[in-house]
Amino acid sequence: MKQSAGILLFRRIDRGIQFFLVHPGGPFFVRKDAGAWTIPKGEIIPPENPLDTAIREFEEETGLCLPGPFIPLDAIVQKGGKYVFCWAMEGDLDPEKVVSNTFELEWPPRSGKRVSFPEIDKSGWFTLPEAKQLINERQISLLEQLIAFLD
């Protein structure tokens, strides 16, 4: 079973809470918006523990190393069966300053050409209604868990 771990960064604003979400880079997500956004996360590579993976992946995808403290949330299972561990942290960052790592892919398929793509191509802060429209539907419960924890 595939497992990944990530961090749901949030901040308090006058109107409530905003969530930091990222949009996957690469050719498969270029025309996808609603339902394609996600928390910064990545695959757990044993023997790394899930929280260490979440911290590493957040840094790889944004350029920011988070110090904690972290709020553990209940893991979710995405449609494809991937188990996602998540922690929340209150913090702030400027989406304009996010620097993502890259990955290589043969593109177009069977062309023999290797092309480099950013792991995330967009990021931003969203209110709960906005985030629910954009985030992968199985990750909505992470937003709701955090709201419940903060209430």
TrEMBL record:
<feature type="domain" description="Nudix hydrolase">
    <location>
        <begin position="1"/>
        <end position="148"/>
    </location>
</feature>
<protein>
    <submittedName>
        <fullName>DNA mismatch repair protein MutT</fullName>
    </submittedName>
</protein>
<keyword id="KW-0378">Hydrolase</keyword>
<dbReference type="InterPro" id="IPR020084">
    <property type="entry name" value="NUDIX_hydrolase_CS"/>
</dbReference>
<dbReference type="Pfam" id="PF00293">
    <property type="entry name" value="NUDIX"/>
</dbReference>
<dbReference type="InterPro" id="IPR051325">
    <property type="entry name" value="Nudix_hydrolase_domain"/>
</dbReference>
<dbReference type="InterPro" id="IPR015797">
    <property type="entry name" value="NUDIX_hydrolase-like_dom_sf"/>
</dbReference>
<dbReference type="InterPro" id="IPR000086">
    <property type="entry name" value="NUDIX_hydrolase_dom"/>
</dbReference>
